[in-house]
Design goal:
alpha/beta, Aminopeptidase, Glucose Oxidase, domain 1, 2 domains, two-stranded antiparallel ribbon, 13 helices, 17 strands, 23% strand, elongated
């Protein structure tokens, strides 16, 4: 009995010693072009129908990933299941109405309700507050001296002809969604957005799926309307309103009118899943290394399939191959000290849904998760990259954002084993594409988990197009990148200490 007790005491020490003697390159070399092709031609096949969230094709891809994890002997990662399933909600309008001063307007010809924001309600207002273009920034405040709390707000789409902002695109104060958010913060009960784009040929009766159906507060109902509707609300001042607003000649004030906004809907529920497999560690098995990639893409639109081979079939395939390599190491008695969690997530293309759901409902403690190595697009070459060797690089993103340990370790491991050019272009805080905030690693980072995001920078003509197909992948380069990630994960799983968390989190400022 004493001898057995001594052996048991020595087991953690022996495990550590075994790791010190293990050569990770032996197992890194099991990541091959042939294996990557086999997986990717399946993940990005016609049968998967573009893996939209949610869809039967996504479910078929999840089953393929689960079966691979099972074949490796991984443990089901969610309390006995390989799937972590979460609900999705879709609203469909059953009725809508809009009238001003007893004049009823026609849907699609004169107005459209928002299926994204609106809740079932019948609202009647005796007045409306006109707030011009509804823009608020350092130079303009269209709400100056206006009280809109609990009231109907009317704003125009677009911006004054001479309006300029340092922020453009979806982050611009002149973008309709930004205006909607401003009106909501001001306390608007409902919003009318006046557009030149009427009548509309495409009926809008069903929303896209969304992950959040239960909300702390209700958002204002939104109706987009024609110029004829606003003329009825504002009277004489509302005639030719877009022409008048070129010189800001329409008063921003409260106008008297009897306005009725009606909307009703039904909500359907679907589900999507993250796929989680675990390779249990030894003496540090209650600490975790995550290796992630999103397996969803844009799905099928009409009969056109968006294959998503690079985005992110390449990341999904990489997770599968890394799992195989680590499983072979464990079978050879060289298993990791920390547990490694291989997770492919869904809903990334819709707004990082799957990773958000996981980090809001973690199976394994986030404070015991030492790192997330996220792989999103690693199969192609960035044609705009001018420096270095285009056949031997990867963009490394976020290694300098949460932990001061991470970049030093990443570079040392790369220098020792992989010798891939590490490009830090997207670590620039002024990166106009805000890449750091645009993949699943960010949901780990915002909870304080150190991360590295591996990325090829390929935003070319095939990005989010049906032409993102497996035949265009550079598999030799993908092997180099995946072997680098394997060596980095090996170090993360076997070093004595968890990574420091000593750099304040950078928060996104919108897009």
């Amino acid at each position: 009995m004493k001898r057995i007790f001594v052996v048991l005491l020595l087991m953690p020490v022996l495990a550590v010693e075994a790791q010190k003697k293990a050569n990770p390159s032996t197992f890194a070399k099991t990541i091959t072009v042939d294996d990557l092709k086999k997986h990717l031609y399946t993940i990005a096949s016609k049968e998967m129908e573009g893996r939209g969230t949610p869809s039967p094709g996504l479910d078929r891809a999840a089953a393929y990933i689960e079966n691979h994890f099972r074949s490796l002997g991984l443990t089901a990662g969610n309390n006995g299941s390989f799937l972590q399933t979460y609900p999705l909600y879709k609203d469909s309008a059953t009725n809508a109405s809009l009238s001003v001063n007893e004049t009823a307007y026609e849907i699609n010809k004169d107005y459209q309700p928002s299926t994204l924001f609106n809740y079932t309600a019948n609202m009647r207002f005796s007045e409306a507050v006109f707030a011009g273009f509804g823009i608020v920034d350092s130079a303009i405040d269209d709400y100056k001296d206006l009280d809109v709390a609990g009231k109907l707000v009317v704003i125009l789409d677009g911006a004054p002809a001479d309006y300029k902002s340092s922020v453009t695109g979806l982050r611009s104060p002149a973008y309709w969604y930004t205006k909607y958010g401003v009106a909501q913060k001001k306390g608007a009960a409902a919003i009318i957005l006046v557009s030149k784009d009427f009548p509309r040929k495409t009926p809008l009766t069903t929303s896209q799926y969304k992950m959040h159906s239960y909300q702390k507060t209700l958002q204002p109902n939104l109706f987009t309307v024609s110029a004829a509707v606003v003329e009825n609300i504002l009277g004489e001042e509302g005639k030719n309103i877009f022409d008048k607003m070129k010189t800001s000649s329409v008063s921003k004030k409260t106008y008297t009118a009897d306005i009725e906004l009606g909307y009703s809907k039904v909500t359907s529920i679907a589900h999507a899943s993250n796929v989680i497999g675990v390779l249990e560690g030894t003496d540090l098995k209650d600490e975790y290394v995550f290796i992630t990639g999103h397996y969803d893409h844009l799905g099928k639109r009409d009969t056109v399939i968006y294959y998503g081979a690079d985005d992110d079939g390449s990341g999904t395939t990489s997770v599968l191959e890394l799992a195989s390599a680590f499983a072979k190491a464990k079978a050879a008695g060289k298993g990791p000290r920390r547990s490694i969690v291989f997770m492919t997530v869904s809903g990334e293309e819709k707004g990082l849904w799957g990773s958000e759901y996981y980090t809001d409902h973690p199976v394994f403690p986030l404070n015991k998760t030492t790192v997330d190595l996220n792989i999103d697009m690693v199969g192609r070459i960035d044609g705009t990259r001018k420096q270095g060797d285009s056949t031997n690089y990867v963009y490394v993103v976020g290694d300098d954002k949460v932990s001061s340990d991470l970049k030093v370790i990443s570079e040392a491991i790369n220098k020792k084993y992989a010798k891939v050019e590490l490009d830090y272009k997207f670590n620039d805080p002024k990166d106009p594409q805000r890449i750091y905030f645009r993949s699943d690693h960010y949901n780990f980072a915002k909870h304080g988990v150190p991360i590295i995001f591996y990325y090829d920078g390929m935003l070319d003509a095939d990005y989010h197009k049906p032409t993102d197909t497996p035949d265009k992948i550079n598999y030799e380069l993908m092997v180099k990148r995946d072997r680098l990630i394997f060596h980095t994960a090996w170090e993360m799983a076997n070093r004595n200490d968890m990574l420091k968390r000593d750099i304040p989190l950078e928060a996104p400022k919108g897009f």
